[in-house]
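tool_log.txt
---
The assistant was asked to compare two proteins side by side. It first ran the structure predictor on the initial sequence, then on the second. Raw inputs and outputs are pasted verbatim so the downstream comparison step can read them without reformatting.
(1)
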Amino acid sequence: MHYVTGGTGAPLVLLHWPQSWYQWRRIMPSLAQRYTVYAVDLPGLGDSRGAPPSYDKATLARFVHALLADRLGLRAINLVGHDLGAGVGFQYAVQFPDEVVRYAHLDYPLPGPALTADKYRSLSWHEFARTNRRPQVLTGGFELYRTLEQDERDNLAAAPITMPVMLMTAEGLLDFTRSTVDPRMTRITRAVEVPGSGHWLPQENPAFATARLLDFLAAGGTR
């Protein structure tokens, strides 16, 4: 985990995949002008050590919560998740709704009726080689996909989250992504496509992604 101290707003937690915390490097300095930013390497991935008992996203969310809430005492956070990190972020918001002030869901269609686990796997692609050279991390990455059926079941069973949500996607993917998340998120207050960007939103158009995140987070913490 890497963090940058900053402003006085609720702590801002960033969850990655398929890269590591490093994917956020271009937007962390600007975010840190208003928030203390925590970029977490998910359990068993990136530069983290050890491995969780399962890589389904509900289990990973509980591991992240143990770090943030139990070890660091962060029980009111702004949360941002990208790709499968957004799968973890959604489950974090489901399981700990009173601890998530605002949630930004970046370019991740939720597995469920509109996107089955098998179909999701057909859409996957990868970058970032250094951390994935570690056999344990490579195994963990594969497990993220092997557990998609469990994610599908968990997402269907989850009560819809009610905190304010921003949906952010690559160009051309907003409508499809929204069709997969609408039943599970009752307060999507903002939904934007990142112009000139493919899947890697914080890297391909960091200025736009940062501005939209700051606007959303500054809108207030009321549920």
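(2)
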Amino acid sequence: MRASTSPSPFDEEPTIAVLEVDLGLPWPDSADRSTLVQLGDLPVDGAGMALGDAWGLDAWTGMDDEPADGLADVSCWGRHEDDAHAEFGGERIPQYGVDGPYGWLDLPLAEAEALATELTRWRGGLQGKGVAVSLDKHTDSYRFRRAGWHHPLHVGAIEVGGCQVLGIDWDRETTRSDTAVNAMPARCIPLCLKAHEVGQTVMRWTIPPYDFDEEDR
């Protein structure tokens, strides 16, 4: 799988413009190599996407499922995050371009739940006066976001059901992105097949630039 980028019109940061997936199938000799075969539309979710083999995605676990490895992460941030660090420990969780919150990775689920409860009772949930607390079970929905922590495009690969799955976590720092997925959560973008230069078949997903006029319609 390959990706190319273009600058965002909002902050000039790179955003995904084209995704290509090698399908491991030869392009038919009788077919025109310059032809694009339209497959249909791929719906885009403003919260992120997972692209992978259907057999693997059948085993996908969502946010409400239990983690297969029995582990979870806990993180906290906010006005009194340094006080929480002094009281409970934890380390900065580095992410691309930022220091990240204080947190604890790969805890047994029961231990993680107890810690999150203790943090919340301490000063959690008090707007402007406490810390925000997050308990993230190791579901596939969370693991693909974690896999992209150190990538400038929030992209990472994980194994699901014995298959590699690519996760794309759209940038949450902006309410709108170059792909307009947050401004237009119901948007669908066409998929097509094309011939690769080595004679193989490639699936291409081209994301058009953000249309400022479209937001007003």
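---
observation on (2): The helical segments are 54-57, 81-88, 109-123, 140-147, 212-215. The first helix runs from residue 54 to 57.
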